[in-house]
Specification:
Elements (H helix, E strand, L loop, with lengths): L1 H19 L5 H13 L5 H11 L4 H28 L1
Helix pairs in contact: 1-2, 1-4, 2-3
């Protein structure tokens, strides 16, 4: 199961990279939001809001996704640092 989480996090990072560089397709953006929700990084309300925003693509929304992804990645890195300290 831990391996699935790592694979999912790698996919999130990859999709975030594509979104940040404006090369992500609409389907990849949807996948990104779905992964963020299924991994517990965003709430149901946030998920619904982001899904609704996907219906009207804008550059502002891409910036929101990048900001969200960066916040999650920073949180994950900090979590890993604390896990490493306990070993």
């Amino acid at each position: 199961m831990n391996n699935n989480i790592q694979n999912s996090d790698q996919r999130i990072k990859f999709l975030l990279y594509k979104i940040k560089n404006n090369t992500a397709t609409q389907e990849e953006r949807k996948e990104y939001i779905d992964l963020m929700y299924s991994n517990g990084y965003i709430t149901k309300t946030e998920y619904e809001n982001y899904k609704n925003q996907l219906k009207k693509p804008t550059t502002d929304f891409a910036e929101i996704l990048v900001g969200l992804g960066l916040a999650v990645l920073i949180g994950a890195l900090i979590g890993e640092l604390f896990k490493g300290d306990k070993k």
